[in-house]
From TrEMBL, chains A, B:
Keywords: Membrane, Transmembrane, Transmembrane helix. The chain crosses the membrane at residues 32-49, 69-96, 117-143, 149-167, 179-199, 219-240, 261-281, 301-323, 354-376, 382-405, 417-435, 441-459. GO terms for molecular function: transmembrane transporter activity. It is found in: Membrane. The keyword Transmembrane helix applies. It is a multi-pass membrane protein. GO terms for cellular component: membrane. This is Amino acid permease.
Length: 616, 616
């Protein structure tokens, strides 16, 4: 298996680029100017305007046109929530100038690890959902304009995820310079739609024939429905934490850059959300299966011309960028958690291009699975969404409150008040989201979180136990050479065996060759050949009655252990063919690999592989 | 990966049973009495009556009721074809008393391997299709009675394939005794339906109100359509070769037993086909999407009572048995072809229970893929079917003709005439099937066959080249011990390193320890620790600038090669953690495995793994 992977190194070079040195990580070109960081880190939050209000209205769609005006109070509420969250997160950056999201804040302020694990697990789950939702919404945007691709949504979405993996394995800085502009274009498009709307309304009136009556209570409305709609609309607020997690990515002065970015982003998002929702209301745009609301509104203003195309495609691209920024977030968070031993250490390994390759690939795999399971339907994924984010928001707020109480400092009471208020709001939203969306999918997240947290705890415990087990006193315990019994597995008399026996004799002149035959005929033939070869060393022949090499070899080693030596002093040497072409591996080595794996696992023997490089 | 597999050995014991010794293969209880062999080996052919006539009529369904009578001539033609084929195959058994189907006959009678490869490849493809078609048809039969399962057809069919894998990994003889009786029950059911039909017709007349007019030419009929219907009906004839492939499975006298089985099977199949088709005609049963014709006929005679249930379930079971007999056929044929070096040798490995495990699992995987791709729809799979079988029939006939011409012997002219006639008929049918079904799916088979044949040729060529490359003159070339440079990879000072260094020093007192650090700090720390440990051997520290252990190590080895020794004389020793639980592997060894795989592939160095068995 590994062979195939390793063998593609040239392919990898072409797709992913030349390897980078560690110190390049700290070089200036990998650090982002805040105006460039804005589109990259904000794509996640800002792009949500493309589906947030629509997700909210979808909950009310069955009530008909009279419920359309509710988009205004709901969007208003989410904008207020947005400002509260941004303010809270700015407090976070003030408290931790070197950055760090909910996980670091919780780790620093809670003695027990559970709070930080809840934060990290819920964020990691939400990152996966962000990728799945954003990519699905992007494909849905394009499918609004080109219905022909609708049946292939899932496959296309998975292709996009694959593309993102490649881009992210290439590294952060490069994606930055490539990807900064499309987000600006999307922002410009949204502003253009909003301005066009107002100009239109200036000439045609702010209440148009299509405008539903404001404030009319639609039949069948309940508090629960409004809360549900609000919960769905809150999906527009995921992605706020990206900037606070990514402070180290900014150019100096980092703290100020990050705060500047937060304020700029908050303002532009608020304006966009309110303006967009307002025009949706004025034009009385309804939820449709085949066409996103953004696509409907753009169509009404610009027809199907070039402007419409730019809007659709920039929506698509910015949603893909949202998924892209999530890759950075996920892989960095998983690396931090892994370096605290709460996730497998493999997540801390940086790849050739200095990205955390394992995190990137894990995220992509999980997101692709979700896309496949939910058929790339944004509306089926939304109920799973947002709980994670609000859960981690809540924990971060509590952590910050604890910190202000402990550290105090300048204006600590104001800061405490802000985070306390933030805590109350986010806690309420978390409960509302979990409660209203429970049956529609939120339960999945509420089942997965405890599993992830227990996994983290188990991983940590395992690493701790192993560290203890491996610890030695360097003054007392020193290496001690010992006697070895050397066995060479031979399958006949040929060049690979020649090489292996030569190697074994270089190590130990008393090496013994072992041959396992499945019938008397082959055993006799081998004895004869060995004689003919001048008996380079002693040959032991074994009969494999189960047609397995493992069983007789295992019995032989058990006997050796009793009569001659400890198991750990038995050294088995065997050849392995190294093929020129990857598919030739199918034709060789099946038993060699099995024997090696079985013996390493079940016996305490040392196994040496002598590669024989096939020429053809 | 292998660990997980090997680790499940207890699970495997429970599911598959205790391992069997080689000689058990030849013991009597694995040999079949012909009356028992009949249901097992005939399930494939006999069960096809459940879908063959229906597949033929499906082609004519759009012509309406007036085309229903065509089932009679078409079935008549297939029964004639059946007798010709059985006669030809009996000639095959006479020529090769120890058995052997189209592949062995072709191998023995054609100088070039292409004919035998065409035969083997087309048979292997058809075995895969038999499993897919039979299992799908079985599920369809049950779905006729219980429409509620229809949406889950694919998943259920794949579950059946999985079940067959388990049964087949348990071995042939046991499946025999378990599975002999259901086929008899199915035969009894078919005979019961036919007798009930005749009794019914005795009292209600052989022409009933529902009987379509015989001989009326339906509007829109063409020769092509009739040929198409005939081609589809020929799918009822697949599976004839099973018996001739399986002669070694019979109890002595094998040849006579096999011929007896053939004659018994041919008679009962012919009676069933004709009787069944006749009643379908009399009752005017039409092709329906939701209900098989067999189910409709049974319903008309027996209502929905117990008899109907027995018929449905025995149809299901016999179709599953058809798939089951194919597992034996596929794995035996692939083992024979592999032992001729035309397929990877892994196919010749017998598993613990003496079945060819790799063949069994490959067949199951391919069939499951087909079922998933074609949504378990028998009618979509039928067009791919039968070409392979008739192609291999044709080749076998030519082979036998060549043999009679060469060997002559008693009554050789009669035998030659039979096979020559058989050749003409099967060749014509092959062309008809390929031509009429080309666009509906036969092209897939006609594309896959050349690919499989080229693969076989490539495999054979590879094995030949390797054998040549490995050949040595045992008198001239003898093993020669040489100087080695021993390197030990260390990651710190702990118990696993202690064990590895001890082992290395047991082999070579001049072993050198290598440490790769990613920054100056860790390198300095390691040097200090090593000193504190009393420098058990020389320590070389390397700086890994790419955060990769591979790059600096590789450069170091290149330097060693220039200054000190050949690459093949470098011996790298490294520890590997063996975990107690399989999932702990996710937490360890990622770099160790990567290093080992990379060095084996890219360098000519010998690699030794010293296992450290974690206690927890």
């Amino acid at each position: 298996m590994w062979y195939a992977v390793v063998n593609f190194s040239t392919f990898k070079r072409v797709v992913i680029g030349r390897p980078m040195r560690s110190r390049e990580l700290n070089e200036k070109h990998n650090k982002l100017f805040w105006m460039i960081a804005l589109p990259i880190l904000s794509a996640d939050l800002y792009s949500s305007v493309a589906y947030g209000p629509e997700a909210g209205l979808t909950e009310l769609a069955h009530l008909g046109r009279s419920a359309l005006w509710i988009v205004l109070p709901i969007t208003g509420a989410s904008v207020i929530l947005l400002f509260i969250l941004i303010l809270s997160y700015i407090m976070g950056i003030i408290a931790y100038p070197s950055g760090g999201g909910a996980y670091s804040i919780a780790k620093d302020n809670f003695k027990k690890p559970w709070a930080s694990l809840v934060a990290s697990s819920s964020l990691l789950v939400d990152y996966v959902l962000t990728v799945a939702v954003s990519v699905s919404a992007g494909i849905q945007a394009v499918a609004s304009a080109y219905p022909v691709i609708k049946p292939y949504s899932s496959s296309l979405a998975i292709c996009c995820v694959l593309l993102l993996v490649i881009v992210n394995l290439r590294g952060v800085a490069e994606s930055a310079t490539i990807f900064a502009w499309p987000t600006f274009v999307f922002m410009a498009c949204m502003i253009l739609i909003i301005c066009t709307g107002f100009i239109d309304e200036l000439s045609h009136g702010f209440v148009q024939p299509s405008t539903p009556t404001f404030g009319e209570i639609p039949g069948g409305i309940t508090i629960l429905l409004i809360l549900k709609a609000f919960s769905s609309a809150c999906s527009a607020l995921t992605g706020i934490e990206t900037i606070s997690n990514a402070v180290p990515v900014f150019r100096e002065p980092r703290q100020r850059s990050a705060i500047k970015t937060y304020i700029a982003l908050g303002s532009v998002t608020a304006v966009t959300l309110i303006g967009y929702a307002y025009h949706l209301y004025v034009r009385g745009v309804e939820v449709r299966e085949d066409k996103t609301m953004l696509s409907q509104l753009a169509e009404q203003y610009f027809g199907h011309g070039i402007v419409y195309q730019i809007i659709i495609w920039s929506t698509f691209i910015v949603l893909i960028l949202a998924a892209n920024s999530t890759f950075t977030g996920f892989s960095q968070l998983s690396a931090i958690v892994a370096s605290d031993s709460f996730l497998p250490r493999a997540f801390t390994n940086r790849g050739d291009r200095l990205g955390y390759s394992n995190g990137i690939m894990f995220l992509a795999g999980a997101a692709a699975l979700l896309i496949a399971l939910f058929q790339a339907q944004t509306n089926s994924l939304i109920p799973l969404y947002a709980i994670g984010v609000f859960l981690s928001f809540t924990i971060a707020q509590v952590g910050l409150c604890k910190r202000w109480l402990k550290v105090k400092g300048r204006m600590w009471k104001l800061k405490l008040a802000i985070n306390l208020f933030g805590f109350i709001v986010t806690a309420v939203v978390t409960v509302v989201v979990a409660f209203t969306k429970f049956l529609e999918g939120a339960w999945i997240v509420l089942v997965i979180l405890p599993i992830m947290i227990s996994f983290s705890v188990m991983v940590k415990r395992h690493y701790d136990i192993i560290a203890e087990e491996l610890r030695i006193d360097p003054k007392e315990t020193r290496p001690h050479p010992h006697e070895l019994v050397t066995l060479v597995l031979v399958s006949g008399v040929h060049r690979a065996v020649l090489q292996t026996v030569s190697f074994a004799q270089s190590l130990d002149s008393r090496a013994v060759a072992i041959y396992v035959g499945f019938d008397d005929e082959s055993v006799d033939k081998m004895k004869l050949k060995w004689e003919e070869w001048g008996e380079p060393c002693k040959l032991v022949t074994l009969r494999g009655e189960f047609r397995s090499i493992l069983a007789p070899l295992s019995r032989y080693i058990d006997r050796l252990e009793i009569t001659e030596c400890e198991q750990s002093n038995i050294h088995i040497i065997m050849p392995q063919f190294v093929t020129k072409k990857w598919w030739h591996n199918l034709l060789h080595n099946q038993s060699a690999l099995l024997i090696r794996a079985w013996f390493l696992r079940n016996k305490d023997v040392v196994i040496t592989t002598v590669p024989y490089h096939l020429q053809k």
